[in-house]
Amino acid sequence: MIDSYTHKGLRERLVNSLREKGINKENVLDAMLKIPRHFFMANGFEERAYQDNAFPIAAGQTISQPYTVAFQTSLLEIKPHDKVLEIGTGSGYQTAVLMEIGAKVYSLERQKELYKSAQLILRKLGYIPSCFFKDGYEGLPTYGPFDKILITAGAPEMPKSLLEQLKIGGIIVAPIGKSDSQDMIKMTRISETEFNTENLGKFAFVPMLKGKK
Ligand code: SAH
């Protein structure tokens, strides 16, 4: 795959449009400027890769809209070396953004096909991912607790098991709600038993499903 000047130009335009839509975290914008999003999509969709839209990938799933990736990543307030649990590897694009800004990412995916393809492309780009073919509802207790947790599929409610795997002071960001529309919820763990909850508005994700495929 080639990352041409045309791709780079389209990417710059996309990042400028994200800035205009209110994304202001420079580390997030820099990462998205650098990562060739078209590598994470099927051949022939290069133009589409740099429009601010979600797009179908394998196994009936979608690569999240660039604005959504930027928004969720910004909410996580990633610091270098943060240990991040990501639920829903999908294409691997969001994983790359997190790694590019210095996070150590543990990413879970329930679709075997995507679990395999995301790792291939991430490796090709020089990221060393820790990917697992696993149901995200279980999380990854043996590797936790985590500084940050990100869910990239719509969950009917905040999974309790994942809250337990968050460090005190840690942040979880997840779209919560019915299948057609979810609220972007950010919870900060302030003690063993207390969380501060914020609702950042409506989004639409593919559903977070139980079990593996
Ligand atoms: N961040 C990804 C989003 C992919 S869509 C990207 O931008 O490419 C959401 C992904 O979550 C899908 O790949 C779907 O298979 C996965 N998913 C849904 N439920 C899951 C679960 N319980 N555990 C792990 N992954 C899950």
Short description:
This protein has 213 residues and is of the alpha/beta class.
How does this structure look, described?
By secondary structure, this protein is of the alpha/beta class. The protein has one domain (5-203): Rossmann fold (3-Layer(aba) Sandwich). It contains 7 helices and 9 strands. The protein has helices at residues 5-20, 26-34, 46-49, 66-75, 93-100, 112-124, 160-163, and strands at 55-56, 62-63, 83-87, 104-109, 130-133, 146-151, 166-176, 182-189, 195-203. The strands form 2 sheets. Strands 5-4-3-6-7-8-9 form a 7-stranded mixed sheet. It has a two-stranded antiparallel ribbon with strand order 1-2. The chain binds S-adenosyl-L-homocysteine. S-adenosyl-L-homocysteine binds at residues 61-64, 87-88, 90-91, 93-94, 108-111, 114, 135-137, 152-153, 206, 208-209. S-adenosyl-L-homocysteine is lined by residues 61-64, 87-88, 90-91, 93-94, 108-111, 114, 135-137, 152-153, 206, 208-209.
